[in-house]
Amino acid sequence: MKTGVIVTDIQGDFTELKHGSLAVKGTDQRFIDTVQEATKKLKEKGFAIFATQDWHSKDHISFFTTHPGKKAFEIISRNGKEQVLWPPHCVQGSEGAKILLDEKLFDAIVRKGTEVEFESYSGFQDDGGNQTPLHHILQAGGIERVIIYGIATDYCVRASALDALKLGYQVVMIKDLSRGVAPETTKKAIEELQRAGVQILESVDSLFN
Length: 209
Prior knowledge:
The chain is α/β, with parallel strands linked by helices. It has a single domain (3-208), classed as Rossmann fold (3-Layer(aba) Sandwich), CATH 3.40.50.850. Helix content is 24%, strand content 19%. The protein has helices spanning 29-44, 134-140, 153-166, 183-196; strands at 3-8, 48-54, 75-78, 81-84, 108-112, 145-150, 170-174, 199-201. The strands form two sheets. The chain has a six-stranded parallel β-sheet, with helices on both faces. Helix 1 (29-44) links the parallel strand 1 (3-8) and strand 2 (48-54). Helix 3 packs parallel to helix 4 (183-196). The longest helix is centred in the N-terminal third of the chain and has 16 residues, at 29-44. The protein starts with a strand and ends in an 8-residue tail after the last strand.
């Protein structure tokens, strides 16, 4: 079975290393180095490697600054869905939107969250159903199983893994190459993924044991 790797949103604005506007705890230089080495190892083993990249307009719907009078991390109801209002992050072309790993590792980089009106946690589609090229790229490569890790476990990793399952892929999630926004939501996300049928591995080494 052909396997592809989806490295989720390893971008400056999500890391403590770059003092990002939406830095997730535990995303220091050591974490980035660990992800870099693991991804390099998978590349050397012959896996196809893909990255997702948050890529928002300055007035994206998920930014609290787009909603006058609102504050960061408030939750509003929009189109019948809850919308967390985040600090501006991963603005198109900004330093904080840059991927922190060696881009030569990737067969393709898939940008998401490009539509101003829709939240987009998943690497496959946004909340409006607008699809990224990721599924088509995987299909074209004959990939049937995906290994997913990155930032953040409880948001983009979770959403990408669940969408991958819905699209018929076997899914593996690597815990030590992922970091979550909060312990409670991270634990809940991992339990949800397990129930849904995602194989959860502690480390990338478990793939080869």
